[in-house]
Design a protein that fits this description.
Elements (H helix, E strand, L loop, with lengths): L9 H6 L1 E4 L7 E4 L5 H11 L3 H6 L4 H15 L1 E5 L2 E2 L2 E2 L4 H9 L4 H11 L8 H14 L12
Antiparallel strand pairs: 1-2, 2-3, 4-5
């Protein structure tokens, strides 16, 4: 097995990539990879005061959820475009992102952010993506060899 299929672009993991939320809208979110260096550092820093409670298994779940939402908003959900609140555009801010990620009514959005931020394909090295795009183009019949005669 060629290990290059697992090779990622660490800059993309840290800086984030734009991805479409679903096919039915133009809304996009810019996501850094979950578990990136900044995410790990922020989680360690925020959880440090709760080390004893974590070890004892007595840390209140609401504290963990709050810290996780704050760290996701700071290090993973970096921007969005095309999101609305009703009919009004919803401008991105870290505070708004944190509020959404903490709100139980938007649990599915939070789950989607976490799921997408963990997808290896979003963060693969560009040369692999370019090879796939070139392969898809040549298979699609747009190369000069695809117009040859069959007689």
């Amino acid at each position: 097995m060629d290990l290059s299929r697992f090779k990622t672009d660490t800059a993309r993991e840290d800086e984030g990539v734009w991805t479409t939320i679903d096919a039915s809208s133009d809304a996009q979110i810019r996501l850094a990879r979950i578990g990136n260096r900044r995410y790990r550092e922020a989680m360690a820093r925020r959880l440090k005061p709760y080390r004893r409670a974590l070890r004892a298994g007595s840390l209140d779940e609401s504290v963990t959820e709050r810290i996780t939402a704050e760290v996701l908003a700071e290090t993973v959900l970096l921007d969005w475009r095309g999101l609305t609140a009703g009919d009004a555009p919803l401008p991105y801010s870290r505070e708004t992102a944190c509020d959404l990620l903490l709100n139980p009514a938007y649990r599915d959005f939070r789950d989607l952010v976490v799921e997408l931020a963990g997808e290896l394909d979003l963060y693969r090295e560009r040369d692999l993506e370019d090879a796939e795009k070139n392969s898809a183009t040549s298979c699609g019949g747009s190369s000069t060899g695809a117009t040859g005669s069959t007689s």
